[in-house]
Specification:
Layout lengths: L1 H5 L2 E4 L3 E2 L6 E8 L5 E8 L5 H14 L7 E4 L3 H10 L4 E4 L1 H11 L9 H11 L4 H14 L6 H8 L21 H10 L9 H28 L9 H9 L2 H13 L3 E9 L2 E8 L6 E7 L5 E3 L3 H5 L4 H9 L36 H22 L3 H21 L10 E4 L4 E4 L34 H6 L26 H19 L1
Parallel strand pairs: 1-5, 5-6
Antiparallel strand pairs: 1-3, 2-3, 3-4, 7-8, 8-9, 9-10, 11-12
Helix pairs in contact: 2-3, 5-6, 14-15
């Protein structure tokens, strides 16, 4: 049910191992109304082939009621890409920008290094272009300026630019995400629950504990968002409205945008066919300007930066125009339901919100939850007196008879037994469950020593872990372990030896005094 409200954007990652079988842990991660990471399920994979990913995505899609996400972010894996194109043909698939930028250092170390001009120019080209034509023009100029026109890797990267460059994806809702960082954050979160020695039975228990921790974190933020007062001035009408509708974290992001609007000015204005066009310019950088188009009656429209389409929150440019037009409340079409307070109150279900006769698991789960709630309400009304209790039971019996007439449900047998004629006895059938094979995974480095040391799960070791695994010292004098020549007890000049001698002398002097 959480997926029905927050499943529009999903991040998927398989670069984490959490069990003794080296099976990749593949979480489906989303974002709730507090901008917190939430889980839509996970899988433990035997391998990372396209066939496996197709099975996984189809199974997960069935569990989620058959509704694919609007957008999905993954790393640059060909098998994963092929499976997504087949199972989610209408979903916008985007590659993790962090993984791609990381390869710049490996592939272009001669020009892409700390504080290099090329590195600064590439960042501006990727992040500060709001038109596709501007990006392509800047990219070509960069390649020519640095003599990289013939670089094969950059050519391949440019050919798939629509799958990783922000300007090509701003028109699709991604909740402001450009990377699979949330999936990797979930991986580190699960570090507190599972380890490389966890077996499958333990994993199920630990995963359930982790989900409870995620739900508690969401409930705590619900309380904070509902009861903590937002400090807003009386004349800040847009902020006052935002404080009523948005959760605390989304309100803070909205507040940041409206604060940045002070750095902009509205200059040119045109009116044609019922639409008003505004040019919003930066007071700091005159070259930075954005066109805002709004319907004169409904105030529907868009900005050139496409922040609302990408993040779901109004940008500073539209807010500046709203201030200019004396609009004191955020229009409803600019408020996404997923960012509202109590957006996660999907446990309160009404009959209008149920989908009928589509045969999907989603609807069955919703109907069951709704019926349980309604039955509980009636039971609470009937419990106080014996008379109401009798009415409730009689009505339930009548209802049961009616449902059995139209239902094809047949209760399953309690025990499945088979007879053994020779012994004239019965034995219960047993299913033998064996441990899975060790997974053959890709893209994970083995443990190495020194500064690049990693744990068995592929993460970097901390300083404490490195210190604990450090080879112990060996004394050249007594050949013992754990100390050196300077602190050796057999060295007459060592501090330890001197301390022993001082202690012996003090004990002798005490005896003489007695």
């Amino acid at each position: 049910m959480a997926y029905q409200y927050f499943g529009d954007v999903v991040t998927f990652d398989t670069t984490y191992r959490t069990n003794k079988y080296d099976m990749p842990f593949a979480p489906f991660t989303g974002v709730n109304h507090h901008m917190q990471s939430i889980q839509f399920g996970c899988a433990l994979l035997q391998d990372e082939t396209e066939v496996t990913f197709i099975w996984l995505f189809q199974t997960w899609l069935e569990a989620m009621g058959g509704r694919p996400p609007t957008s999905i972010i993954t790393d640059q894996d060909l098998a994963m890409k092929g499976a997504i194109a087949r199972v989610f043909p209408n979903t916008r698939h985007r590659l993790c920008l962090w993984h791609i930028k990381k390869k710049f250092v490996e592939k272009l170390s001669q020009v892409y290094y700390k504080k290099s001009k090329f590195k600064k120019d590439v960042k501006k080209c990727i992040w500060l272009t709001y038109k596709k034509e501007d990006f392509e023009e800047r990219w070509m100029a960069l390649m020519k300026e640095n003599g990289l026109e013939g670089n094969e890797w950059l050519q391949q990267l440019y050919e798939i630019r629509d799958s990783w460059v922000p300007v090509y994806n701003r028109g699709t809702f991604f909740a402001g995400m450009n990377t699979t960082g949330r999936s990797e954050g979930v991986n580190s979160f699960f570090d507190a629950f599972v380890s490389s020695t966890t077996n499958l039975k333990e994993f199920v228990v630990k995963y359930d504990q982790a989900l409870k921790r995620i739900m508690k974190r969401e409930s705590d933020e619900d309380f904070e968002s509902e009861h903590k007062f937002r400090i807003v001035k009386d004349n800040e009408f847009l902020l006052k409205h935002a404080a009523k509708v948005y959760t605390r974290n989304i309100f803070n992001k909205f507040k940041d945008e409206i604060s940045e609007a002070l750095n902009y000015k509205v200059e040119e204005m045109t009116n044609a066919d019922g639409f008003q066009s505004f040019v919003v310019k930066s007071k700091v950088n005159e070259l930075q300007k954005f066109t805002v188009t709004l319907d004169s009656q409904t105030y529907e429209g868009m900005c050139e930066c496409q922040n609302f389409e990408f993040v779901g929150i109004l940008c500073r440019h539209i807010l500046k125009v709203f201030v200019r037009l004396d609009i004191d409340a955020i229009p409803d079409h600019f408020i996404l339901p997923r960012w509202r307070q109590k957006a996660n109150k999907f446990r309160i279900i009404d009959s209008e919100g149920l989908v009928h006769d589509d045969g999907k698991e989603e609807s069955e789960a919703l109907r069951l939850s709704h019926m349980c709630q309604e039955s509980t309400k009636l039971a609470c009304l009937a419990a106080p007196s014996y008379e109401s209790y009798k009415i409730y039971i009689e009505a339930m019996n009548d209802l049961s008879e009616k449902l059995l007439k139209i239902s094809s449900y047949v209760p399953p047998p309690i025990n499945v037994c088979h007879e053994i004629d020779d012994l004239h006895s019965t034995e219960r059938t047993q299913v033998l469950l064996l441990d899975p094979n060790i997974s053959q995974t890709k893209g994970r480095k083995k443990d190495v020593k020194g500064k690049d040391a990693t744990t068995h799960s592929g993460r970097l070791k901390s300083g404490i872990e490195l210190a604990l695994n450090k080879k112990k010292r060996k004394c050249n004098l007594c050949k013992g372990i754990g100390h050196d020549k300077r602190t050796c007890p057999e060295n007459p000049m060592s501090k330890a030896n001197k301390a022993l001698e001082a202690e012996a002398q003090s004990s002798d002097s005490d005896q003489e005094m007695t």
